[in-house]
Amino acid sequence: MPRFTWCIGEYSLPRKSARDNSFLNCSYLKSAYSQESPKGIMKRLIVSLGLLVLALPGIAQVPYIVNMGFNISFSALSNSPPPDNSIFGSAEYSRLKLWSPYGNQPPITYYTNDLDVYVQSTTPMEDAWILERETDGSFTPVIEVTNSVPSVFLGQSLTLTTNQVHSLIAGNWYVEVDFDGSNYMGNLVPNYAYAIGPSPVVTIPPDDQNIIWSATVISPNNRTAKVIFDASNSTDPFYLPMQYYWTIYTNMFFDPSAIMFTNTGVVVTNVLEVGVYSIGLQVNDSIANGLPFEFVVQVVTPGQAVDSFISDYLQTSTVPNNKKRILINTLSIAAAFFNRGQMARGVAKLEEYKRMVRAFHFDSTERSTLLQPVQDILDAFKVPERFKSFR
Questions:
Q1: Phi-psi region at 95: left, alpha or beta (left = phi > 0; alpha = psi -120 to 50)
Q2: Residue 105: CA atoms inside 13 Å, Cβ hemisphere, count?
Q3: Alpha carbon of 233 to those of 71, 108, 217, 270, 274: distances in Å?
């Protein structure tokens, strides 16, 4: 594969022609790359997304996050005439994609460092390459652009390494397009203004389930709970260090006048009284903000958690009535103990309930449904070893 070298202020590129395999003379790459308006960039991104969907008929598409868009502005090489508006391009970088492969099945989430490059011209293109500029100024071919619809439109998708992502967002990627006797180079200019940065992920021990909209935390003393908010599973699409900014409000409406406290740690903890709170997390990197992540946390007493399980599930479940009465009676006694502050006796009663469920020989699904909410209440009285330093 030919190597594209940098002369002092000049390019030396092989002529991609079946009739002439000689190399072009070094000549100055004229013109600075023009900056397209944000509106124009977004228009091209929308068109590109449409082309991607049309190229995949029969697949139910779910929109994915374009973390950064790029405008490609072309300049002439060697003795080629200056480019007109008939040649232009754009590119999109995405780390997270969501798609549904078969009809109504749930979307599949997968992570990929995916770069999609598009070049369009009113004149058929002979060949095109994606290039990476090295630190010494030379150009290394990354991949030949081979997908054409027809030759007036070229598109290429590729998966990048972490180092290539860093090079891409630094503006070191190019597209070289060849016509019959004419060659043009275009820089993938990063559009930082519309970039989407980190994807926040929050868990609350001990269950460590990713929070979607809300979470319930159980107070072990009927008054307060030490709540740990863990954002260490957050990811950055550009593999850059992340900064965190938490805001906790004393109501569920994200009211700026009701800010309780702020914090900038990856893992933060605070004592919350029984009640409802709203939490906002903003995660940024050095070039882009992530999408804001907001959720609601409700702190309840163990007795309230037991009563909710009885009313929300057990009373209306398909458990046989004779067994249901025994289980509800046991849980009601546990709730009464918790409400009186007799936590040890309440815990013992919940353990008794668990033994009863196992003794009744429910099927595995029913048994899990009856046991998990009670185990969540019991877990409120213990903290995972790795988080004890935050207590």
A1: alpha
A2: 10
A3: 32, 19, 20, 20, 27
What's the pLDDT tens digit per position in 147-205? 766 667 888 999 999 999 999 999 999 999 988 778 899 999 999 999 999 989 999 88
Is residue 154 within 8 A of residue 186, CB to CB? The reply is: no
What pairs with residue 187 in β-bridges? 73, 174
- Report DSSP state, residue 66: -
Q: Where are the beta strands (DSSP E) in the chain?
A: 5-7, 10-12, 27-28, 60-61, 68-77, 87-100, 108-121, 127-133, 139-144, 147-148, 153-159, 173-179, 182-190, 214-218, 224-230, 243-249, 259-263, 267-273, 275-284, 293-300
Q: HSE of 233 in the Cβ direction (CA atoms, 13 Å)?
A: 11
Pairwise CA distance, residues 199 & 281, whole Å: 10
Residue 269 has pLDDT above 70, yes or no: yes
Pull the structure tokens for residue 351: 């353990």
Tokens of 140: 């290394």
pTM above 0.90?
A: no
Give the model's pLDDT for residue 206.
75
Q: Report residue 251: phi and psi, to 5°.
A: -145, 180
CB 215 within 8 A of CB 112: no
Reading the block at residue 53, the tokens are 């969907």
- Distance between the two ends of the chain, CA-based, in angstroms? 59
CATH number of 214-300: 2.60.40.10
Tokens of 189: 């200019």
Strand partners, 315: none
Size of the chain in residues: 391
Q: What is the DSSP string of 147-190?
A: EESSTTEEEEEEEPPHHHHHHHHTT-EEEEEEETTEEEEEEEEE
Locate 94 and state its tokens. Answer: 């995405």
Using DSSP, how many helices (H) and how many strands (E) does the chain show? 6, 20
Strand, coil or helix: what is 70?
A: strand
Residue 357 phi/psi, 5-degree rounding, is: -60, -45
